[in-house]
Amino acid sequence: MSSEHIQGTVAAGFESVRAEFAAVAAAEGGDYAAQLVAHLDGERVVDLWTGPELTADSLTGVFSSTKGAAHLVVALLVQDGVLDLDQRVAHYWPEFGAAGKDAVTLRDLLAHRAGVVGADGGFTAEEIADDRVIAERLAPQRPYWRPGTAFGYHALVIGALTGEVVRRVTGRSIQEHFEERVRQPFGLDFYLGLPEELEPRFLTTLPMLPTPEQLAELEANATGPDSLTGIAFNRNHPKAPELWELPNLEVVRQLSPASVGGVASARGLAGMYAAAIGGLLSPATAAEFAQVHSIGYDLSTRKHNAFGLGFAVVSDEYPVLGQGAFGHSGAAGSQAFADPRSGLAYGYNRRRFAFPGGAAPENARLIRAVHAAATA
């Protein structure tokens, strides 16, 4: 794909980002469809897109990049003094204290240290779409490790757990808080619950198309449905949907589970993080939520991970970024973050599920290009 197929604009000094995006598109091939947006000190300096059917206004499922929206709400409530990070979850939500979870704090929960990564028996598609159902199922669940002794990515349930705390304290859902405090005031194309009138702008997620070598790698590293990884990614239910299918299900787009159900454009992703470091969060709150709380071997993903509070520590994966950068990737390949030290906010979104799942590999080269232009 040549550079003339890249649409959109860049500010002066960011021409190299357009060239890098074109190089990525050429390497990915003809069905590559993606959006790339960056803000510097609140100004949009990169706004690019390419690929069949995709426009700047197209919306796709952003999977776990939704966690950034959900936990921006939690950060705001902590900043307001409504929630206390070191209070026990069971203080807010008594039923959660069952089966050895009574001492788990909100900080532990946000740092993926609570051990409740899924449920015995798993969830149907309708259940995984409904945060209230997930919370009800997980309250009596025995944790899969002793809370606080290790960490593991609560991939499909963390938003339901933190969301139930928010609901118990405020009487309102994370989705409602996000709409009123973040999406509407900043006019963001990032929805936790896609309005029916915007459905025509939604593009379905396309499945991964691994090469024979990639397929062999997937098979060699496969885990069983009843393994900890299988439980964390809901493969322990016989009728569970494939992960890539989730945003294609209308019930997921409507209810928008706060772990994985968000629908956005790259403009929405980057715009949210620009707002977060543009005055929505105080520097002290941003620093606390970005601080490393869990780092090392992740029991759920069986690989290295680094988490702050609800957010990923993105500088661990992209060391060109400043200390204190915070954000979250999504399974199909999206990545979004704020880097307060450089004033950079970044959003990347792609339509086809990237190998091997999680932040798409091309983010590394795009982030380097954006950061280099921003700090030149």
From TrEMBL:
Signal peptide extent: none
Gene3D superfamilies: DD-peptidase/beta-lactamase superfamily (3.40.710.10)
Keywords, sorted A to Z: Hydrolase
Domain Beta-lactamase-related: 36-348
Gene Ontology molecular-function annotations: hydrolase activity
First-tier enzyme category under EC: hydrolase
EC number: 3.1.1.103
InterPro entries: Beta-lactam-related, Beta-lactam/transpept-like, Beta-lactamase/esterase
Record's protein name: Serine hydrolase domain-containing protein
